[in-house]
Design brief:
- The protein is mainly α.
- It has one domain: Tetracycline Repressor, domain 2, CATH 1.10.357.10.
- The chain is 79% helix and 0% strand.
- It has twelve helices and no strands.
- Helix 1 packs antiparallel against helix 2 and helix 5 runs antiparallel to helix 12.
């Protein structure tokens, strides 16, 4: 039976587990990330792992949520940068969303359809729905604020809040779309949507 951890030890171990899982996902993907390797890296027993998470997938979902928090903070900074037109602001927003799948290794790992499929099969539907709602609320707040500032008039904020999910869907279908034309199609997609922000 694993020895009890102090609150500070729990905090440190949880951080180490998140880092180890993030590194493993970036290098080997979700499927090949193993609890045995994670506990070896962190220096705890396998029994100790289950004090923190009921499964590997629960830890990985936590890693993804933590990464999303970082991405949101980085996006907020990007949106504070100087821009000349609402269209330019929206283009930066969209480019940031697409670039995040290359910029953040965890996002690159889940951009593989088979990896995402493994994860979603193991995460309770309520948790998936809660995360999706949280995502919607975050982006809805951005677009509501843009409406208040007069940057966008004729598009419903609830519709715009679905754009990040659409970006994710496109990235997950990169293979089917065709890697050789994906970048050019994304540019067309961004430019087409951005026209809605022209005065």
């Amino acid at each position: 039976m694993p020895r009890p951890f102090s609150e500070e030890e729990k905090h440190q171990i949880r951080l180490k587990l998140l880092k180890a899982a993030s590194d493993s996902m970036a290098q080997m993907g979700i499927k090949k990330t193993s609890i045995d390797e994670l506990v070896r890296t962190v220096g705890i027993s396998k029994g100790g792992f289950y004090i923190f998470y009921p499964s590997k997938e629960a830890l990985i979902f936590d890693v993804i949520q933590t990464t999303q928090e970082t991405i949101r903070e980085d996006l907020k900074q990007v949106l504070l940068e100087k821009w000349d037109t609402p269209r330019e602001l929206f283009v930066r927003f969209l480019e940031f969303l697409f670039d995040s799948f290359d910029r953040y290794p965890v996002m690159k790992a889940i951009a593989q359809p088979e990896e995402m499929s493994i994860l979603m099969r193991s995460v309770p539907l309520e948790k998936q729905q809660s995360e999706h709602q949280d995502d919607d609320d975050f982006f809805l707040a951005i677009f509501d604020e843009w409406k208040t500032r007069g940057l966008v008039f004729h598009i419903d904020s609830k519709v715009l809040a679905g754009v990040p999910s659409l970006v994710m869907a496109l990235v997950l279908q990169k293979e089917m779309i065709g890697k050789d034309r994906f970048e050019d199609l994304i540019k067309l997609f961004i430019n087409g949507l951005a026209k809605e922000f022209e005065g």
